[in-house]
């Protein structure tokens, strides 16, 4: 078996109304069509990907995301072109997103280029571009080692 992408990711947000406004701008910008917009769910689909938010249960309403806690670390959307990352950054600044880092290159994969930002609850989100086959490129390394786990050098 070989999977065919990620069908969907849903996150619980601390403040649904605030998050709905944020994702109501972000998801359409990413080319996603909004297919559910109810009192407790907001969900978009596009690029063989679904992403949605749910309102919190009463006992966790108002809580914020805690980077490093058990659960989601961050969510990353893949851009088709490097320039798309720059365009996304300009859009994110325009809508007032908290930028963790502006577009930059990293050693996660050959040519890895990304912007890292947060939603209103502090959930980490990323938009990246990796040219070609990325980590599937023969000899590609991540974290100082090769994809099979052996170390370089």
Notes on the protein architecture:
With 153 residues, the chain is of the alpha+beta class. Helix content is 18%, strand content 32%. The protein is built from two helices and ten strands. The strands form three sheets. The protein has a four-stranded mixed β-sheet with strand order 1-4-3-2, with helices on one face. It has a four-stranded mixed β-sheet with strand order 5-8-7-6, covered by helices on one side. The protein has a two-stranded antiparallel ribbon with strand order 9-10.
Q: Count every beta strand, where a strand is a DSSP E run of 2 or more residues.
A: 10
The shape is: globular
If you average the pLDDT, what whole number results? 90
Radius of gyration: 17 Å
Amount of beta strand: 25-35%
The unreliable regions are 144-153
Helical amount: 10-25%
| Cα distance spanning the termini | 34 Å
Q: What count of helical segments does DSSP give?
A: 2
Class from secondary-structure proportions: alpha+beta
Largest sheet: 4 strands, mixed
Major β-sheet strand ordering: 1-4-3-2
Helix/strand order, N-terminal first: EHEEEEHEEEEE
